[in-house]
Design goal:
Chain A is α+β, with helices and mostly antiparallel strands and 209 residues long. Chain A has eight helices and six strands; from the N terminus they run βαββαββαααβααα. Chain A has a two-stranded antiparallel ribbon with strand order 1-6. A two-stranded antiparallel sheet of chain A has the order 2-3. Chain A has a two-stranded antiparallel sheet with strand order 4-5. The longest helix of chain C is centred in the first third of the chain and has 18 residues. Chain C is elongated. The N and C termini of chain C lie far apart (57 Å). Classes of the chains: A alpha+beta (209), B alpha/beta (983), C mainly alpha (73).
Chain lengths: 209, 983, 73
């Protein structure tokens, strides 16, 4: 069975925010709720790199572990979803999440200015009938049940952001990394794991042909 | 307001909108306009807001869930609901933000645009979108739109009816025409209109009797169009975004494609993965630079010394393509003389780029062929813009890169249809198709339009004015403010119609508001009230009208992408609120002006849903097809374009050529030139001037447009350098009836073709016979086969020369490389060059920092449209300026604080300091998409209520200074001076 | 083990409180165990109507739309 993951290719991400507005558009997100955002390091200087970040749909998700109302669940495809009916908007998941994924829109008066938690659903909706109005209103579109992938990845300007079955998208990424044919940033995974660039040289040659 | 409709459906539906569209007559407010069922869309649409604020609201309500372990229920009900798909349609359209031409599938349910899906089939964008493209569905909400006609009364905008608006405006315009002549009006057209609308706009203003019209291209790529066309024939991107996948090296100079044309980077980064080297030369370390192999920081406005610096190394190392230069280029020796003066030390002194870096990029381009170059506003918006772009052309000619796949000059246009509007739209110096304004051109077009030439002539003040280029949009303010004796027309401008362009994209904002104040009448026709509404309301109490046009998603029509591919947009939704398509509004005015019959002689008039007369858009395109022979807009019939839109998946991404299927052998969007009649089935031209292909397969060669010889030297191409399979394997002039007869080809024409072709040339033969015979029968190019011109002798600087910007930080270089002489009459206006430069030579003592401007990815153009889209506005909430830490510290400004940027024209912009090394010390960068603040004050009160953009900020062009290109009147906005002051 | 003990304790506390006439102040959540509303699998209902293979095929082809190399070569 598919193991759904996101993967952002930093060599391709141009910080255009297409993923951010695709998400806003697909789920009609209100101002202030950003299920996805683009972060940049070394802004404005050589070495500038960006990646798009949202909920990573962790295999052992810290949000799930800490939630006092156990509102999270994980689908068979590895997508971390939550039940807004059970969410109390406490924000503990926000503490726990390493990526700042949980969002807290302005909610009804019962919760003061802090609404129930909202986050990336991998465009898989939530615990309501697939594609129903109730699901859309609470969680947004359910593209997965339509046989589609998340809007952010599907609309990415440079196909930097990939989403889907982890082995498949990592193949797409690996193919590119090999073509880039050089060590350094492009193949950092390789060099980190197996040593200095010269050791990675055979890979570089193969890709450069 | 959330009335539940009878049937349940699979997808969510924004209910409020559905009710509306389904029952257009059932008005929530009961408002009625004279034109009929202009229902209360406003009120109900506003209600959607509540609907949209759904997140968290409903949560907690439906606790009736089963307590089964998760994933255990399969809903029986769901399967039933799935079948109910009535009212769901998919409409294919094209993003309206930039010239890449990304396809969008709009899911429309009962008339409401409910979803947006990527079009993976599009060979241009393969489903990809930037922030703007991924948010176009917001146009279906349009909460900040101009909703109905409005009139400025006592300094406030009041709602009026369409009838009242049309009557009052046309009465005033007719009165002004009667008193002061038609040239007392100025018409700013739009590059955001479809080809058909911009074409009709040219015709419309011509019939009103003036050439005083223009559009965004003037301040965008006018220098490119003029410079490039005069070099080799056509002023357009030679290759395509897709073709860059064949490049082995690419130089981006004055282009920040990652922000301005994000989806083009899909092709470039793909190319880079396959070994293409990429260099960026820019005053800023842009996001494009962040993706490049090499980056060099250039001083703004010194492109020519840099390009000559590269050519110096190319010539010195013998890297030039000698055979190519001999066979296909005229006058390179003269260029070489100038180039060799630019020794590396001089280049470094002027541009700031060290020799090693210049050599590295020259080496990269010369030794990784085919190599391409990309430029945008960074090259064009200068007083030497026309020379900058020619220097780039020369660079590519020297390297033999033009007419080669993977090479070419990839000039990225700005707006979605700025290429098309330039080709067939409201240009002050030309009729559609670059025919110019000579009597013969008018006669050609009168024949196409089916109107009497004498009648059109009578509409103008005189034949002289009919054949005299109009004032440019960059200078309309001087047409108002300049002393009457200094201008080359009878009256000053008294009325301006801003039909789809932002005023904050033109320089000298402080003088613009003075001009607005002085006008008798100002009319704005736009989906958004635009900065024009607020700027004029700030200056005056009355005499301004706002008319709501709809967007391109609310009508049909074609748009030409930067690569000359033409795509057809389907209508996604009905016009929102009381808005109308531009061509419908033009027709309504034509009726008031009494020339509606002439205006649509060959065009069917339909009735829209409210009973308005709407010219048939397909008929308009067919009329364009029958007239624009010069650049091959004749083969792209509506039927052929629609077939391409349906069969996108059959086109190859790299070559854009269809492989099998109904469009087999054709190039996507029939990129112009697509010669002959649609029946001739020319496949379009993917790469211009490509001799490796037969003309009937999109091949070509340089155009013979500048005579056959110059100073005793032939301008025609050398033997053997014709396009593949041409009967004439040599240089030859353009074809006309005489040449055809001489060659004995005349009898290849049919009898019917002969009748129309007699006495005509390939551009004016309305039968298309000459093009057919020359191309299909003899494999030749109708515009001849000549050499490209490295020396453009009809320009002020035949060989591009460096001239320091008007406002230069280097007085010493101003003395060495001064501007040319002032011009007394230039596009009807006196224009300053050297006298002003001398006057401000030492002004850098007071204003020591170079001010330049550019794009942000989230916004587009003047920005009123994109800043009104909450999904985009949230991402850039304030106007800012990038300032180097050194300059910030010297001024005592800290990151994120307000500061003032002050310019020599007394411009003062209050904005946030973004302290960053993206810009060098001595340079400040301002994005140009903002408006709605004026010298530190929010202009909210001057906007029509509820129609102000969400994000407002200081416009950079409030403070830009005087300076215009010596050929096209392009404004200088990329290099001026400023100082930074703590707020 | 620990979990079970913890649960037992909570339950005991809950019971003891209710014995004093108070209503339960502690919800009987099992840490880490979702007990909320159930969800349908993506292929259930909707357009795939339970056809898992069709759904997987759709996603697979969609996956490849992210790979422009697939289309150009």
């Amino acid at each position: 069975m598919a193991r759904m993951k996101f993967l952002c290719d930093a060599e391709r991400c141009i910080e255009c925010n297409g993923c951010v507005t695709a998400c806003k558009n697909e789920h009609e997100l209100p101002w202030g709720v950003n299920r996805r955002r683009v972060v940049t390091i070394n802004d404005g200087v050589p070495g500038e790199k960006s990646i798009s970040v949202s909920c990573m749909h962790c295999s052992d998700a810290p949000c799930m572990a800490v939630c006092p109302t156990d509102c999270f669940y994980k689908t068979e495809e590895g997508v971390v979803l939550h039940n807004k009916d059970a969410c109390i908007g406490c924000g503990y998941c926000f503490f726990a999440c390493p990526f700042g994924a949980p969002q807290f829109p302005n909610g009804p008066a019962a919760f003061g200015t802090r609404g129930k938690m909202d986050k990336c659903t991998f465009c898989a909706g939530g615990p309501e009938e697939n594609g129903s109005k109730a699901e859309y209103e609470k969680y947004g579109s359910n593209r997965i049940s339509e046989g589609k992938l998340p809007a952010c990845a599907e609309m990415c300007a440079t196909k930097a952001l990939l989403a889907g079955d982890a082995p498949v998208i990592s193949d797409i990424f690996r193919d590119r990394a090999l073509r880039r044919g050089k060590a350094g940033d492009a193949a950092w995974g390789w060099t980190t794991a197996y040593g200095k660039p010269e050791q990675a040289a055979p890979v570089a040659k193969e890709g450069a042909k | 307001m959330l009335v539940k409709k009878g049937k349940s459906r699979t997808q969510y539906t924004p209910e409020a909108g559905v009710i509306l569209a389904a029952n257009p007559a059932s008005s929530a407010t009961g408002r009625k306009s004279p034109e009929g069922a202009m229902n209360g869309v406003l009120a109900t649409t506003m209600d959607r807001r509540t609907f949209l604020k759904r997140s968290g609201l409903v949560a907690g309500g439906g606790a009736l869930a089963t307590q089964l372990p998760y994933n255990m229920i399969g809903s029986a009900e769901a399967a039933d609901v799935a079948k109910d798909k009535t009212g769901v349609e998919v409409k294919r359209t094209i993003c309206t933000h930039c010239s890449v031409g990304c396809a969008v599938d709009a899911i429309v349910e009962n008339g409401v645009w409910v979803r947006q899906e990527p079009v993976f089939d599009s060979p241009i964008n393969l489903g990809a979108h930037c922030a703007k493209g991924a948010s176009v569905r917001e146009h279906g909400h349009g909460e900040h739109r101009l909703k109905y006609p409005m009139k400025l009364v006592d300094g406030k905008y009041k709602k009026i009816s369409w009838d009242q608006a049309l009557t009052e405006i046309s009465d005033k315009l007719l009165a002004i025409r009667k008193e002061s002549g038609p040239d007392a009006t100025y018409w700013v057209g739009s590059s955001k209109q479809s080809n058909e609308q911009s074409y009709m706009f040219r015709k419309f203003v011509s019939f009103f009797g003036t050439n005083n019209m223009d559009h965004q291209a003037r301040v965008c790529h006018s220098t490119t169009v003029a410079g490039v066309a005069n070099t080799w024939g056509y002023g357009a991107m030679t290759n395509s975004y897709n073709d860059m996948q064949f490049s082995k090296a690419a130089l981006y100079i004055g282009s920040n494609a990652a922000e301005a044309h994000p989806v083009s980077m899909l092709h470039m980064l793909h190319s880079k993965e396959n070994g293409c080297k990429m260099a960026v030369v820019d005053p800023r370390f842009t996001r494009t630079a962040a993706k490049a192999d090499y980056y060099s920081r250039i001083r703004s406005g010194t492109d020519i010394p840099f390009i000559w610096g590269m050519l110096y190394h190319i010539f010195k190392n013998g890297w030039e393509d000698k055979e190519y230069l001999k066979a296909r280029v005229h006058g390179i020796e003269k260029v070489k003389e100038e180039v060799m003066k630019w020794t590396p030390d001089k280049v470094q002194d002027v541009t700031g780029i060290p020799e090693a870096e210049v050599l590295r990029i020259a080496d990269m381009l010369a030794n990784n062929k085919p190599s391409t170059v990309v430029w945008c506003m960074g090259q064009t918006q200068h007083t030497v813009g026309n020379a900058n772009v020619r220097a780039m052309c020369i660079l590519q000619l020297v390297l033999g890169n033009v007419g080669v796949s993977g090479g070419g000059t990839n000039i990225f246009r700005g707006h979605d249809n700025v290429q098309g509007a330039t080709d067939v739209g409201p240009n002050p110096d030309s009729l559609p198709g670059y025919y110019g304004l000579a009597a013969g051109s008018w006669k050609h077009w009168c024949a196409v339009w089916g109107v009497d030439y004498e009648w059109v002539k009578k509409q103008f003040a005189s034949q002289v004015m009919m054949e005299k280029s109009g004032i440019t949009v960059s200078r309309w303010i001087d047409g108002v403010l300049e002393k009457n004796e200094n201008i080359d027309q009878d009256s000053n401008i008294r009325a301006v119609v801003y039909w789809g362009m932002a005023p904050n994209s033109q320089s000298r904002g402080l003088e613009m508001v003075e001009a607005m104040k002085k006008l008798d009448l100002l009319v704005v026709v736009d989906p958004y009230p635009s900065a024009t509404a607020a700027m004029s309301a700030m200056m005056r109490k009355d005499g301004v009208y706002l008319l709501p046009a709809c967007t391109q998603f609310e009508t049909v029509g074609s748009a030409t992408a930067s690569n000359r591919s033409i795509q057809w947009r389907e209508k996604v939704i009905e016009p929102l609120f009381e808005s109308k398509p531009d061509h419908t509004i033009m027709y309504a005015f034509a009726k008031k002006f009494g020339f509606e019959k002439e205006f649509c002689k060959n065009i069917k008039i339909d009735k829209d849903k409210q009973g308005w007369d709407e010219p048939n858009v397909e008929d308009i395109l067919r009329e364009i097809n029958r007239g624009v022979w010069t650049i091959g807009y004749t083969g792209q019939s509506p039927e052929r374009l629609k077939l391409h839109m349906k069969n996108m998946h059959t086109f190859d991404v790299k070559t854009l050529k269809a492989n099998g299927g109904p469009c087999d052998g054709e190039y996507f969007g029939l990129p112009w030139p697509c010669f002959g009649t649609p029946e001739m089935k020319h496949p379009g031209t993917p790469n211009l001037y490509d001799t490796s292909k037969h003309v009937m397969d999109g091949g070509g060669n340089f155009r013979a447009n500048f005579g056959v010889e110059r100073d005793g030297v032939s301008l025609l191409a050398e033997d053997g350098s014709a396009s593949k399979g041409a009967d004439l394997q040599m240089g030859y002039p353009e074809f006309d009836h005489v040449l055809l007869k001489k060659l004995g080809w005349w009898d290849d024409l049919t009898d019917d073709e002969k009748k129309l072709a007699e006495g005509k040339n390939w551009k004016t033969d309305r039968s298309g016979g000459i093009q057919r015979v020359v191309m299909k029968v003899h494999g030749c190019h109708p515009f001849g086969n000549a050499k490209a011109r490295a020396v453009v002798w009809n320009f002020p600087d035949p060989v591009p020369l460096h001239r320091e910007p008007m406002y230069s930080p280097r007085p010493d270089l101003v003395e060495k490389y001064p501007q040319g002489a002032d011009k007394k009459v230039f596009w009807r206006l006196p224009t300053l060059f050297k006298s002003l430069q001398d006057k401000v030579k030492d002004i850098s003592k007071e204003f020591p920092i170079v001010m330049t401007s550019g794009r942000l990815v989230e916004y587009e153009g003047g920005g009123e449209e994109t800043r009104s889209n909450p999904w985009l506005a949230e991402l850039q909430q304030e106007m800012f300026a990038e300032v180097n830490p050194k300059d910030a510290n010297n001024a005592g400004v800290r990151n994120g604080e307000f500061m003032w940027v002050e310019t020599p024209s007394k411009g003062r912009m209050k904005l946030r300091a973004q302290v960053t090394e993206r810009v060098a010390p001595g340079t400040v960068f301002l994005p140009f998409h903002f408006s709605g603040w004026w010298q530190g004050k929010d202009m909210l009160e001057f906007y029509p209520e509820g129609a102000a953009p969400i994000v407002r900020g200081e416009s950079v062009n409030q403070g830009t200074t005087y300076g215009y290109d010596s050929v096209t009147m392009m404004q200088e906005t990329k290099t001026t001076l400023c100082r930074v002051v703590r707020a | 083990m620990k979990k079970a003990l913890f649960l037992a304790l909570t339950v005991t506390v809950g019971l003891s409180l209710s014995a004093c006439g108070e209503y339960s102040q502690v919800a009987s959540y099992k840490p880490g165990n979702y007990q909320g509303k159930s969800d349908t699998r993506p292929w259930e209902g909707g357009q795939f109507a339970g056809n898992k293979q069709a759904w997987e095929a759709a996603l697979n082809s969609r996956n490849q739309t992210q790979n422009e190399y697939k289309r150009t070569h």
